[in-house]
Amino acid sequence: MAQFFPAMLSILCLYATRAAADGGEFRMESDEEIGIHKSILEAAQRGDVTAQSLLGQDYFYGVHGVAKDTHLGLHWATKAADADDRDSQELLATAFGRGHPDVPADAGRAVEYGTKAAEQGSVKSAELLGKLFYNGTGLEFLSQEERMQKSFKWFQRAAKDGSLGAMNDLGDMYRLGQGTKKDYSEAIRWYQKVVADMSHVLAADPTLPSAGWNRTAVARAFNSLGAMYASGWGTEKSKHRAVEYLEQAAALGHPHAARNLKSLGAAKEEEL
Ligand SMILES: *[C@@H]1O[C@H](CO)[C@@H](O)[C@H](O)[C@H]1NC(C)=O
Ligand SMILES: *[C@@H]1O[C@H](CO)[C@@H](O)[C@H](O)[C@H]1NC(C)=O
């Protein structure tokens, strides 16, 4: 690893120069980007894993002045991922797991790379694994029960590391008794953890992709809390609190909250 450090440093410096240039009045001519690309390519060909990882991302996403080439992106990302580069493992897991216009979904490979990345601390990969095992497409060699247990385990990991989406999914699994014993109080506890983060979520820069995911997670948790209070699951029945939660969900754009509010409004307090 030590012999790669000088190359890695120079690549990072080049990227830093590029970023600074972007902030100027003129966008630097692509000559510079071509030069950087060439140095990264040379380092990658010499076996520098950091360079292979950067190159994989540049080709895969078509960024930093590099024309998008999914095939080359996968080629370099696979080299780096097999040398245990976490970002490349995450890239491959996402591409194979979600499917991609140029990459057919392959749950087996998504699980393989996702597990490696998650074990190196990738929260995004842990959440993806939870979703892949929950969905089950391409993983039919496992029984439904095995899949649910694995899904639960990965959502638990991602939730512990702060993923709001995974906290919601964990709440759902406790509510439905999937991958774990049914436990309404635990479900409520997880939904409450998600909504407790609301002020932070609403204050986030809305152009960041995770801002939208977080907002969706909070809306879902409010809607679920509304349903739990309306039904008296894991808590005292309370139409008043159910309405409060559903109104919050509706304000955040949850697609079913308005309909839920309407049916709740039609129900008499003593029927709830
Ligand atoms: C499961 O995944 C498949 C393939 O990615 C997708 O078409 C399907 O809609 C998913 N099902 C659910 C329930 O999410
Ligand atoms: C979304 O939530 C996660 C977990 O709390 C947090 O790490 C991330 O910064 C949030 N994203 C934004 C844009 O606030």
Automatic annotation (TrEMBL):
Keyword Cell inner membrane: no
Keywords associated with the record: Signal
UniProt-listed Pfam families: Sel1 (PF08238)
SMART domains found in the cross-reference section: SEL1 (SM00671)
Annotated signal peptide: 1-21
InterPro entries: Mitotic_Regulator, Sel1-like, TPR-like_helical_dom_sf
Identification of the protein by name: Protein sel-1 homolog 2 (Suppressor of lin-12-like protein 2) (Sel-1L2)
Protein source organism: Cladocopium goreaui
